[in-house]
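RECORD TYPE: inverse folding
INPUT: structure tokens
STRUCTURE:
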């Protein structure tokens, strides 16, 4: 099968409110439904079934062949691991090219040591931190930024815990737009902050938390023609969907039993869940993996919503965790994420700060590495196995969302043993000592290095 044998047809799409079903072609600046204030999603009327696909000239198998075939194309939209799947994305008007940094195309790794630590036979990680700016945000930013440019916006903006802002700043720069970043002062990693500066964003560190930044931004976009690029923007989630499509392609369309994802503002779990349901509806996969969402104990409003209110309401909390990417107390997309978890029969769990730190080191010791927020997935899996929700012989994929270099300060403090110094977790942190590898400062002699090596070997043999 070659490119020319299938029509280049993208599904006609509309915006649809997730609560009241109101449909529209355009949304207001805050992307909220004018009827009920809930969020929009992109719907593809007529394309939700194999019959709809067939009417458009496709079959599920033909789409799979087509996408695989595009990998050998050199066209920018085909080398993007997002736009390669454009039949399942909202389409840009003729004459508008996507803004792309060749996002997507991220690896799927085996994690043998982590599998042993979690008590499962086989464990894999889809590493979305291997995207161009080091996080999964790029897969959604390529779509939403492209729509911003198509709509003629000069300015784009987001509130962020650091990764969205890094990604937005890069895509805005590539697309010839200006970007405005609102971040909580002192609560994002330096790596992420430095990215948005380098990519030329106007960066405002507000004396508040992420949720406070969101509030300011929501007012701002009503007063100025600024395009909102937080994950309430449904075009972000469409691009983020492709991580799940690409994962299934890498697994030869055999779904794993479990897919485990970190939960912050809950856009990503919503996007991955939407992709799974769409793939099932279209006949691209035969069954659904269970999608489970893991939060940090200190930033757990979604977990509490389900445990304490049966998912009927979400009470915002004050959030605090060293996994700063998910330091969020009032997640915008919780209703979408709830639907994804329920439809796939997944679970929502929470993990402690020490559990996150241990899991991050374990992922590092498999030679993969990730930022702290991503490590909640392994920590959460351990709990799901202990509870019997995940069985040792089931297949599990962790979604790693950010690159290990995003937050080197966390990693250094962990290995030096002072990550939890002076905190309530100090005592529990004793369990982390075997994973710690502080650097040795030595005289510049062969003997000094050899002595260190011998001491290490002796300890290793005793371990
Ligand atoms: N992992 C990383 C590395 C993140 O940066 C985020 C969110 C998440 C997980 C959670 O994803 O919000 O879709 O549930 N970061 C956002 C930001 C909030 O501003 O960079 P989510």
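DESIGNED SEQUENCE:
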């Amino acid at each position: 099968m070659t490119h020319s044998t299938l029509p280049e047809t993208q599904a006609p799409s509309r915006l649809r409110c997730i609560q009241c079903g109101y449909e529209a072609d355009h949304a207001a600046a805050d992307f909220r439904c004018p009827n009920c204030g809930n969020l929009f999603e992109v719907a593809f009327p007529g394309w939700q079934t194999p019959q709809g696909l067939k009417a458009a000239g496709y079959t599920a198998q033909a789409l799979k062949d087509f996408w695989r075939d595009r990998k050998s194309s050199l066209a920018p939209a085909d080398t993007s691991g997002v736009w390669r799947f454009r039949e399942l994305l909202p389409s840009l008007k003729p004459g508008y090219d996507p803004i792309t940094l060749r996002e997507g195309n991220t690896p799927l790794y085996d994690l043998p040591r982590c599998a042993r630590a979690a008590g499962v036979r086989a464990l894999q990680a889809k590493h979305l931190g291997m995207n161009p700016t080091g996080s999964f945000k790029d897969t959604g930013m390529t779509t939403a930024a492209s729509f911003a440019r198509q709509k003629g916006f000069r300015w784009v903006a987001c509130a962020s815990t650091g990764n969205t802002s890094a990604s937005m700043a890069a895509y805005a720069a590539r697309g010839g737009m200006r970007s405005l970043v609102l971040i909580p002062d002192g609560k994002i990693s330096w790596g992420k902050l430095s990215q948005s500066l380098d990519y030329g964003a106007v960066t405002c560190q507000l004396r508040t938390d992420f949720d406070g930044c969101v509030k300011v931004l929501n007012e701002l976009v009503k007063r100025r023609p600024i395009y909102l690029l937080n994950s309430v923007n449904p075009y972000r989630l469409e691009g983020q969907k492709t991580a799940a499509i690409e994962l299934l392609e890498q697994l030869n369309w055999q779904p794993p039993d479990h897919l485990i994802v970190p939960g912050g503002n809950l856009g990503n779990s919503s996007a991955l869940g939407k992709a799974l349901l769409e793939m099932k509806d279209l006949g691209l996969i035969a069954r659904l993996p269970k999608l489970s969402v893991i939060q940090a104990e200190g930033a757990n409003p979604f977990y509490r919503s389900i445990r304490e209110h049966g998912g009927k309401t979400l009470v915002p909390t004050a959030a605090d965790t060293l996994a700063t990417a998910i330091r969020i107390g009032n997640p915008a997309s919780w209703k979408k994420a709830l639907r994804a978890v329920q439809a796939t029969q997944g679970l929502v769990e929470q993990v402690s700060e020490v559990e996150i730190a241990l899991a991050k080191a374990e992922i590092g010791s498999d030679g993969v590495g990730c930022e702290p927020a991503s490590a909640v997935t392994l920590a959460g899996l351990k709990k799901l196995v202990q509870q019997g929700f995940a069985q040792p012989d089931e297949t599990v994929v962790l979604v790693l969302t950010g690159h290990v270099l995003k937050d080197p300060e966390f990693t250094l403090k962990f290995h030096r043993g002072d990550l939890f110094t002076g905190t309530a977790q100090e005592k529990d942190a004793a369990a982390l000592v075997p994973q710690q590898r502080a650097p040795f400062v030595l005289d510049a002699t062969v003997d000094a290095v050899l002595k260190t090596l011998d001491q290490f070997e002796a300890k290793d043999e005793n371990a």
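NOTES: The mean pLDDT is 95.
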